[in-house]
Amino acid sequence: MKDEKRTIIPILICTTLLGAVGQLLFKYAFVNSGAFVEWFILAVVAYGVSSIGYFYVLSRVHLSWAYGIGGLSYIFATILAYFVLAESIPPLRWLGVVIITVGVVMIGFS
């Protein structure tokens, strides 16, 4: 199982990042109504590809492990919101991101 996880981790990271990008695109679609359809379609595609990758991961590893690593989506979404959308992130939320990061690392090594 350990060798399997080593090959799955990059796929799982990509699927969670793509899911966070999908969220960002959904947000962008609803805020920028001038190009709603284009951004919405991109968001659905990002989410769809993310889901297909996640299904592949689930077919190869334990759900409890994969879902725990999926916590990366919170980290990615917060970072994207800060850098791309210029959202203000309060210190307490950054602390939460750090705690989630520690948890994801612990699950990854389990």
| Total E-strand runs | 0
| Share of helical residues | over 70%
> Any low-confidence stretches, pLDDT <50, length ≥5?
none
Helix and strand content put the structural class at mainly alpha
Mean pLDDT: 90
Could you please describe the fold and organization of this structure?
This protein has 5 helices and no strands. It is 83% helix and 0% strand. It has one domain (2-109). Helix 1 (2-31) packs parallel to helix 4 and helix 4 runs antiparallel to helix 5 (91-109). The mean pLDDT is 90. By secondary structure, it is mostly helical.
Fold blueprint:
Elements: H1 2-31, H2 36-58, H3 63-69, H4 72-83, H5 91-109
Summed up, what is this model?
The chain has 110 residues and is mainly alpha-helical. The protein contains five helices and no strands.
Keywords, separated by commas or semicolons:
mainly alpha; 0% strand; 110 residues; 5 helices; single chain
